[in-house]
Amino acid sequence: DTGVSQNPRHKITKRGQNVTFRCDPISEHNRLYWYRQTLGQGPEFLTYFQNEAQLEKSRLLSDRFSAERPKGSFSTLEIQRTEQGDSAMYLCASSSRTSGRLKGTQYFGPGTRLTVL
Amino acid sequence: AQTVTQSQPEMSVQEAETVTLSCTYDTSENNYYLFWYKQPPSRQMILVIRQEAYKQQNATENRFSVNFQKAAKSFSLKISDSQLGDTAMYFCASTGANSKLTFGKGITLSVRP
Questions:
Q1: Mutation site, A108, A112, A113, A114, interface B, largest B CB count within 10 A
Q2: Fewest Cβ atoms nearer than 10 Å: which of A29, A39, A43, B22?
Q3: Which tens digit of pLDDT belongs to each residue from A59-98?
Q4: What is the CA radius of gyration of chain B?
């Protein structure tokens, strides 16, 4: 079990550019979540998948944001036409509905820090 | 809707002493979980402890324990024998039937040598 991984760890981009982040969950986990965290704040929910189905999206997720989880494995989060307000840490987490004692517990990746200039 | 409130922005404790971090929450769910996560300066969020709301017994994990008061909607974390490695930001969080986590604003804990 290698844990949740995210790439890239850091991304610096210019306003107006598109960026894409990748998350690889723990292999047997069927649920995958995206959160956004700004400095000094707790993470805020963006969206989540159960297998390949996107089941919920936050109102924080404007139409410039899109997320996919093809085949229920890794997930990508794309931000189009980035704005300076998009600068944040983007966290991915995964969980399993059937993992016994820690059922439902979300395990986080290291995050992707986005800086929009 | 769920809300989680951590009203203390920061705390400091002497190494080897005990410290308690406070958290209150509000939820309309009947079945939910409560968590404390730790985020050290390296920023990876790590699970500290988990409590199932339908269990009356307080969860414990080595030096970490909770005081879960369901009627008061209170969920505090006690850290015994504090260690320098406990220095981090601590987040209280809750999840309901829809499984998404709602976090508090966090508290910065500093352990003094």
A1: A108
A2: A39
A3: 888 899 999 999 889 999 999 999 999 999 999 999 986 6
A4: 13
